[in-house]
Amino acid sequence: MSPWYGVWHGGSGYTLSDLESDLEQFGSIQEAKDALSDRFRSGCSWRQTFRYVNRDPESVLTPAVDEDSCIHLYASPECLDYPDRCVYFGPRGGVRVENC
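The chain above was modelled as a monomer; its predicted structure follows.
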């Protein structure tokens, strides 16, 4: 498995993330799917870990994650012009991955 790099876009209370400072590393696409699901389902109760590429990691609560949240994934941290994949919630609450 090769790592993926992503930028999470939170729910209605969040602005778009900054690619430079908010870029996270995920060990796989499945790890990114799990992170989105965990941030939605337990982000109010349990701290979620963010493994940032360009700053120190953080563990924070994510209370405003909703069904419109997503993670844009990039295959490389050097090529951030356009995401390679988008991780998002499907119409019945499952987490889906789509090529961009």
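The chain has a mean pLDDT of 90.
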